[in-house]
Amino acid sequence: MQLKNAVKVFMFFLIMFNLIGLSVQANTGDRQTPYSAFKKHKITYQYYSFYPKRTMELQLMEIYNGDEANRIIHREYESNPQPKDDEEWILMKFHIKYVSGPEELLQIGDFISSYTDQNFFTPDGKQIRNLGAASFYDEYVGYDEFAVKLYPGGESDVIYPLLVKKSVGGYPWIRIKTNSDDNADSFAWFNTNPHYVEPIDATSVKLNKTNTRLGAGTSEKLTAIIQPENTTNKKLTWASSNSTVAKVNTDGTVIALKAGSTKITAKTSNGKLATCSVTVVPVISVVSSAGKSVGNNAVLNKNVTVKITNNKLKSKAVTKNGSKITWPSSNTFTKDGKYKITVKDGYGKTYTYSFTIDKKAPLVPTVNKITSKTTTVTGTAEKGATVYIYKGSKYLAKGTANNKGTYQIKIKKQTKGTTLKIFAKDAAGNQSKTKTVKVVQ
Q1: CA–CA separation, 273 vs 251, rounded Å?
Q2: pLDDT above 50 for 99
């Protein structure tokens, strides 16, 4: 009973290892993109985890199938099995070298065997069962998988015969275990079709830029450079780490959406990566001489620098107090006035931005008589200016002058002889001189 259970466990793991070998991989030499058997390849070979690893080199030199293979098999030994109507012989001549490994004799049939169902597969991944054994007594005598034995450094031609159903297609695939692991085995796959072109993987990918700045609403196409130039699969997958800031199309075109930062990644089919850091800024960037951002329709008493970040600028214009003026070469505006910026780009969009520079201090506010019974201070000041009332260094109250230039500010009653200081500040932050007023009886 214990032996039967052990056999069941062994068969379960054997099936699982085979399924793992057929799982999706990502590089040349895997099930999806096998090596060409006609190219020389050096691989690691390990059938069981407790076996030492060996380095082997193999190359398919010739392959025969159909009538030609049948004639060769019959020539080698007339008693070799004759294929049925739906069968054919496939004959493969490999050159195999035992590159390195333990200093012990390796029978090549342990490396690749045509008499087990572990090495030869149909192109769609089904295991091939050899329907007959062939013997060689002519040209290929001494070159079958049982006769060839190699020490490290040794090499030889090896002949593999397969009697198979014609439905196999004449060109089997070969699977060799490169690493044995309790969790997942690794395999190298080879295509024996002489017309098969082995994929050339990308070894690296670079972008024409590693960082860029874009104005919101604009776009820029990134260009990927894949090496080597003869890479057969140049398909790229593009992605943005923050698609709310900028998204990227399948051709590498980055579309800036709103201010912020993101990272654009280009990934090859075999996992090579290249990135570009993207900073998205407002199309019109306005900064004061104090280094602070200036909001749209802001009023300030400092010079203003305007930067256009659109990468496809068509035109830019500015008006001052409603009249068109020349755009300063320094991009900095210094004179008092109300400015309006208009930008048009090649994407068919128009952007506007307005600000007012006002460096002139308002006039000293007028103040009507203040008595010890006064609870509302009145007077005149620049329209829209804020009028402040202080008693010494103590703030008492403030109010805003209306569109007629008058103000009314509530205060507590002050004692006779108290000195009040009153001044005005306009929207740009300019401050008037201070008016001193004494409270009377």
Answers
A1: 16
A2: yes
CA-closest candidate to residue 237, choices 247, 252, 225:
252
Distance between CA atoms of 17 and 332, rounded to whole angstroms? 71
Neighbours of 268 (CB within 10 A): 22
What is the residue-wise DSSP string for 24-90? ---STTSSSSPEETTS-EEEEE-SSTTSPPEEEEEEEEEEEEHHHHHHHHHHH-TTSPPP-TTEEEE
Asked if 242 contacts 199 with a C-beta cutoff of 8 angstroms, the reply is no
Residue entry with tokens 């049982």: 146
Q: Using CB atoms within 10 Å of the CB of residue 114, give its burial: 0 to 12 exposed, 13 to 18 middle, 19+ buried.
A: buried
Helices (H) then strands (E): counts for the chain: 3, 34
Q: Residue 5's pLDDT band (boundaries 50, 70, 90)?
A: very low
- The pLDDT tens digits for 301-330 are 999 999 887 767 889 999 999 999 999 999
Instruction: Report the greatest alpha carbon distance in the chain.
Output: 141
d(CA 342, CA 155): 78
Q: Which of 158, 46, 170 is nearest to 109 (CA)?
A: 158
Whether residue 370 contacts residue 420, with contact meaning beta carbons closer than 8 Å, is answered with: yes
Region for 337 from its dihedrals, namely left if φ exceeds 0, alpha if ψ lies in -120 to 50, beta otherwise: left
Provide, rounded to the nearest whole percent, the portion of the chain with pLDDT above 70: 94
Which of left, alpha, beta for 411 (phi over 0: left; psi -120 to 50: alpha)? beta
CB 336 within 8 A of CB 359: yes
Radius of gyration of the chain (CA): 43
Secondary structure of residue 15 in the 3-state scheme: helix
Alpha carbon distance 140, 158 (integer Å): 9
Alpha-carbon torsion (75, 91, 39, 97), positive or negative: negative
Secondary structure element (H or E) that encloses residue 3, with its range = helix 2-21
Domains present along the chain, CATH in parentheses: 2-191 (2.60.40.1240), 206-278 (2.60.40.1080), 284-357 (2.60.40), 366-438 (2.60.40.10)
DSSP state at residue 307: E
